[in-house]
Write a structure and sequence with these properties.
The protein is of the alpha/beta class. The protein has 13 helices and 12 strands. A hairpin with a 4-residue loop joins strand 6 and strand 7.
Amino acid sequence: MQNCPICNNQPIEIVHLPETDCKKIKCILCGSFIISNTALADRTIDKVSKEDRILFSGYIRENDERGNILKLLSDDILKIPEKVASYNRLTVVDKLITLITYFARTSKYIGQEVKIDYLTEFTKFFCKDANELRTLLSYLKERGYVNFLGSLGSTVLSTELTVAGWQEYENIKEPNINSKKVFVAMSFQNSAMKEIFNRAISIACEECGLNAIRMDLIEHNEKICDEIISEIKASRLLIADFTGQRQNVYFEAGLALGLGIKVIWLCRDVEKAKLHFDTRQYNHIFWKDAEDLRLQLVNRIKATVL
């Protein structure tokens, strides 16, 4: 294998993991990830569009930089379009926010140099190519949020976040700080889960002075996806319960993360083993019944946003 199976670029390193059916790949665009030999051999990745593969490259790199190396099996490859659906809907403003946040979190002090390589780092900002990243950086410079300190070779740019950039970061790092809305992503297809919402999630939010929002109770004339995105963008917090493993819950939690909105992760304890590979690293509340969830959720909300 000469190229990375995800982004099709030359990998830096391929390691055969002993006593497993997997290889660990370290790619200049994707970062590090593990993929099964079966997934490589059956070429499942060929069924995924180039655009989705580039976005998934950024998703892998984001997880790698958090210390979570993804393990991809054939079934996981087929789920790539679902995993990147929220990133496909990111606006230019969303990507600018991601860039400013990266500068702030990478810098330890005002004026610290941050190096950006167009060719190897565009995916981690969910840009489609290096030129899109270059254009976004130029816009931030024009607005006075970053300074260009000089070029370090043909593709590497030396930059710094300005005082105005730090002020903008302070404005965006706590989105919707005055909002009382909490978007709830979960399955409402059976009476048991509706009871969990009514007796645990809704009450816990009320105890914390917040209002739980569930889409099946909202009257609207817009397309459901547009209304969901609008409500998530207006929320202080998103609560995601993965009991039942509904794909929309993964989509909505991923969108909230991309927008900088904090997520509280829930799952009934008996379904812990069913959680998908890319969310297991988050600190879930595993609940037994409504009262158990209410008590744990009140404490988590207070620790997260209050």
